[in-house]
């Protein structure tokens, strides 16, 4: 299998964390998939017409995307156990979607700087995206701490990827320190972000 990849991408990172947790990083060949809305990557588009990474090219079937589908696919293939069975799966999927929503908003803030000339940027629109991130983090602090300290799942991995991304792109995205006013999340992150799978995939 080949994975269109870029180390800074938090969506790619979710997939890499799962592979690390499953001990299956050798099963996937990493292929440079760097691109963006104003600099599309033709190889990525050939596999995923939306032009986004991660995109997993299977040896035995059509390409699989986006990140949530890839993680579900690899979890099933390698029996990784990062999605619970029964009704518990709905909380995991919702938290993963919640994390992805914050990442989508955060990436749009970064693209605003990377892809648009200064005169074309909208401060109000970027502020709206930052508010989605901030509201999302407040909701995690208020409602999801019991889930975060439970058995490892892709919801937790998604939140971990959000937090490191906000630090990594703090300057370009104009993100404030997510720790301020969120003591529970801060305490949880201290331990979670030190996991070997998180340390091995940190954005750089
Ligand atoms: N919903 C997608 C989002 C993926 C995404 O936004 N990837 C970014 C890199 S972090 C990308 O490929 N951007 C290129 C583009 O927007 O053209 C997923 O979960 O995989």
**Main sheet?**
3 strands, mixed
Q: How much β-strand is present in the residues?
A: 5-15%
The portion of residues assigned to helices is 55-70%
Order of H and E elements: EHEHEHHHHHHHH
- Total domain modules: 2
Bound molecules: glutathione
CATH architectural grouping of the largest domain: Up-down Bundle
The overall pLDDT average reads 97
Radius of gyration computed on alpha carbons: 17 Å
Low-confidence stretches: none
- Per CATH, what is the topology of the largest domain? Glutathione S-transferase Yfyf (Class Pi), Chain A, domain 2
What is the helix tally? 10
Secondary-structure-based class equals mainly alpha
User: Looking at the structure, what is the overall shape?
Assistant: globular
Q: What is the name of the CATH class of the largest domain?
A: Mainly Alpha
What's the count of strands? 3
**Which strand order spans the largest sheet, edge to edge or round the barrel?**
2-1-3
In whole angstroms, how far apart are the ends? 24 Å
């Amino acid at each position: 299998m080949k994975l269109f990849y870029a180390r800074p991408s938090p969506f790619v990172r979710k997939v890499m964390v799962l592979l690390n947790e499953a001990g299956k990083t050798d099963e996937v060949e990493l292929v440079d998939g760097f691109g963006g809305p104003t600099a599309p990557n033709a190889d990525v588009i050939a596999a995923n017409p939306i032009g986004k990474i991660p995109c997993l090219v299977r040896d035995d079937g059509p390409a699989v995307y986006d990140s949530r589908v890839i993680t579900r696919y690899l979890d099933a293939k390698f029996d990784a156990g990062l999605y619970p069975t029964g009704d518990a799966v709905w909380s995991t999927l919702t938290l993963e979607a919640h994390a992805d929503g914050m990442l989508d908003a955060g990436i749009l803030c970064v693209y605003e700087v990377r892809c648009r000339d200064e005169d074309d940027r909208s401060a109000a629109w970027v502020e709206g995206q930052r508010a989605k991130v901030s509201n999302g983090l407040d909701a995690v602090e208020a409602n999801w701490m019991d889930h975060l300290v439970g058995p490892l799942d892709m919801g937790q991995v998604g939140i971990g990827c959000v937090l490191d991304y906000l630090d990594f792109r703090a300057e370009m995205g104009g993100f404030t320190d997510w720790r301020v006013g969120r003591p529970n999340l801060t305490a949880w992150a201290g331990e979670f972000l030190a996991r070997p799978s998180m340390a091995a995939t940190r954005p750089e």
